[in-house]
């Protein structure tokens, strides 16, 4: 009997101890915890771009398909060489969008007549020295590029900027939660749950018409600034 009594007392002590350690947040099955406040936060991390993406295209026409393609290929090689000469690394240069199609004359009631062929090739480049973007454009143009795309300013590695934007968003969420809690005569405690609802890393596009207008001389380029944004939803303990 004495042993049974001791066991009952021990169980009671453990139960009381566990009751004293319970969290203040009361939850309901499958629902948002009670005694909490939920807020959304938005954050921004202004960051200077460190890379520009460019595209240089060339087209060639000839009555012979092979000659048209060979001519475009030769010019594309000249463009790639020119880019390397102004500091663009070989691994940052890529040939893309190779196309060859016939130029046809369509007349009513007659079969199409092939007049010749047009070949097109693009040379894409990542320019990591933003101060050299103008020189890169001039070099590609002098090498025979007839179409220019970009520059598109972006980040080579955006991990740090994303983290900064998320941290700013969490701070914003806490500020909003504190305002709501104060209005209700409460205060904000620990974070109960948090989720990211979106991170955006924009790209700055330079006006290609401005580039075309200045192709004959030095092209002034201003990379500007990227505003990386983030949104989060945070659930705080309400005390």
Can you put this structure into words, describing what you see?
There is one protein chain. The protein is of the alpha+beta class and 239 residues long. The protein is 34% helix and 37% strand. It is built from 5 helices and 8 strands. The strands form 2 sheets. Strands 3-4-2-5-7 form a 5-stranded antiparallel sheet. Strands 1-8-6 form a 3-stranded antiparallel sheet. The two termini are 46 Å apart.
What is the secondary structure topology, with strand pairs?
Elements: H1 2-20, E1 36-47, E2 51-62, H2 65-85, E3 93-105, E4 113-127, H3 133-142, E5 147-154, H4 159-183, E6 188-200, E7 204-205, H5 208-213, E8 226-238
Antiparallel strand pairs: 1-8, 2-4, 2-5, 3-4, 5-7, 6-8
Helix pairs in contact: 2-3
Quick overview:
The chain has helices spanning 2-20, 65-85, 133-142, 159-183, 208-213, and strands at residues 36-47, 51-62, 93-105, 113-127, 147-154, 188-200, 204-205, 226-238.
According to DSSP, the number of beta strands is 8
Query: What coarse outline follows from CA principal-axis ratios?
Result: elongated
Low-confidence stretches: 1-29, 208-217
Mean pLDDT: 81
Which key terms come to mind for this protein?
five-stranded antiparallel β-sheet; single chain; 239 residues; three-stranded antiparallel β-sheet; 34% helix; alpha+beta
């Amino acid at each position: 009997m004495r042993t049974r009594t001791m066991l009952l007392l021990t169980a009671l002590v453990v139960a009381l101890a566990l009751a004293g350690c319970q969290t203040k947040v009361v939850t309901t099955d499958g629902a948002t915890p009670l005694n909490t406040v939920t807020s959304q936060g938005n954050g921004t991390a202004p960051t200077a771009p460190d890379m520009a993406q460019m595209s240089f295209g060339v087209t060639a026409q000839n009555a012979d398909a092979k000659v048209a393609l060979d001519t475009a290929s030769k010019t594309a090689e000249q463009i790639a060489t020119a880019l390397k000469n102004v500091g663009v690394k070989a691994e940052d240069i890529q040939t893309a969008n190779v196309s060859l199609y016939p130029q046809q004359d369509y007349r009513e009631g007659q079969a199409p007549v092939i007049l010749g062929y047009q070949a097109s090739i693009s040379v894409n480049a990542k320019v990591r020295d933003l101060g050299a973007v103008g020189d890169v454009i001039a070099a590609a143009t002098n090498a025979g590029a007839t179409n220019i795309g970009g520059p598109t300013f972006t980040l080579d590695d955006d991990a740090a900027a994303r983290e900064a934007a998320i941290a700013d968003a969490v701070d914003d969420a806490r500020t909003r939660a504190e305002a709501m809690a104060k209005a209700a005569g409460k205060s904000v405690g620990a974070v109960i749950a948090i989720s990211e609802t979106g991170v955006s890393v924009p790209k700055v596009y330079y006006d290609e018409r401005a580039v075309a207008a200045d192709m004959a001389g030095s092209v002034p380029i201003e990379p500007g600034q990227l505003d990386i944004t983030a949104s989060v939803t945070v659930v705080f303990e309400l005390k």
